[in-house]
From TrEMBL:
It comes from the Bacteria. It comes from Streptomyces pseudovenezuelae. The lineage of its organism: Bacteria, Bacillati, Actinomycetota, Actinomycetes, Kitasatosporales. This is XRE family transcriptional regulator.
Length: 318
């Protein structure tokens, strides 16, 4: 019976690897070990999930067990709970590992903007806009917005250049309020706002603790309702710590948005990706890897027509 003994040895090894992975993680190793221990091809796993009313592609399952992607959306988390039953695992075992992976990642990263800090920044922004007598609706509809982010040799957010194409929604609009939110550790008092084209810099306000800077840009024309206008400005930052992402939020639908992040040749990231969120409190979705261009060391995303929510680009240094 050598074959039966050999088979039993293989099973025992697979079970031992699974037990070890379920205790120590990470999630993708435990998932891969569970699928191997049960001897199920991914197509069968997908079929079982469909019987639970959960739709997950074979490619997504493959990415999950390789660690290339993580289940984050509500539908994906439903799939993870179903996988615990399909693969005969203890209840909450995979979900627990996902949470532990998140905690571990957060501990390894320097402080980033939490949802609470974003809410605080939002409150501060309202105060600063009040100081500039800026109405909630600035009277301009964005037809196109191109942002170019410069990451310096110290891995810091060095600069942000914005090119706007707008249409006036009422008579007499003659200014635009620019908002810049620096990275953790930044010093907004040391940032500089430059009017580059068809505008000039007016009043500037900032809040040290939240890293928020607000600048009044005076347009070179007083617009009539329906008029279009183009203008450009730049914020020189360079005051924060290591930068790991750039995020742009939209309160209402608009036109095209393009974001380009360019890296100093002496500080190139290991990998880059785009992402989206329905709101700052929502889980991130729409993750897609981005490849650096050869000569200019940049990545970009284009949203043909923005919707309410958040889009951004993130990157890993090592």
């Amino acid at each position: 019976m050598p074959h039966a003994t050999q088979h039993a040895d293989v099973v025992s090894v697979a079970d031992a690897e699974l037990d070890s992975a379920l205790r120590g993680g990470p999630f993708h190793v435990a998932l891969r070990a569970a699928i191997a221990a049960r001897g199920l091809p991914l197509q069968r796993v997908q079929h079982h999930l469909s019987r639970y009313g959960v739709k997950v592609g074979v490619t997504s399952l493959s990415y999950w067990q390789q660690g290339a992607r993580r289940p984050q959306r509500p539908e994906s988390l439903r799939a993870v709970r179903a996988l615990e039953e399909i693969l005969q695992l203890p209840e909450e075992s995979l979900i627990r590992l996902l949470a532990e992976d998140d905690d571990r990642s957060a501990a390894e990263r320097p402080a980033a903007r939490s949802y609470r800090s974003l809410l605080a920044a939002s409150d501060v922004l309202g105060q600063l806009l009040g100081e500039l007598d800026a109405p909630p609706d600035g009277g301009l509809h964005t037809l196109g917005h191109h942002e170019r982010i410069g990451i310096g040799a110290r891995r810091e957010l060095r600069s942000r250049e914005s090119h706007h194409i707008v249409r006036a929604q009422r008579e007499g609009v003659d200014r635009f309020i620019a908002v810049h939110h620096g990275d953790p550790g930044c010093v907004p008092e040391l940032m500089t706002v430059h009017a580059l084209e068809n505008c000039r810099t007016g009043r500037v306000r900032s809040h040290h603790d939240t890293g928020v800077l607000v600048a009044e840009l005076l347009l070179d024309a007083r617009l009539r309702a329906g008029d279009t206008f183009l203008f450009r400005y730049c914020v020189e930052d360079g005051t924060g710590g290591v930068s790991r992402e750039y995020v742009r939020g939209f309160g209402s639908p608009g036109g095209q948005y393009a974001l380009q992040v360019r890296f100093d040749e002496n500080a190139l990231p290991l990998r880059c990706h785009r992402f989206a969120q329905h709101s700052p409190a929502a889980p991130r979705s729409g993750r897609r890897e981005l490849s650096l261009t050869g000569h200019h060391h940049s990545v970009h995303l284009v949203e043909p027509r923005v919707r309410s929510g958040v889009v951004g680009i993130g990157w890993d240094w090592e």
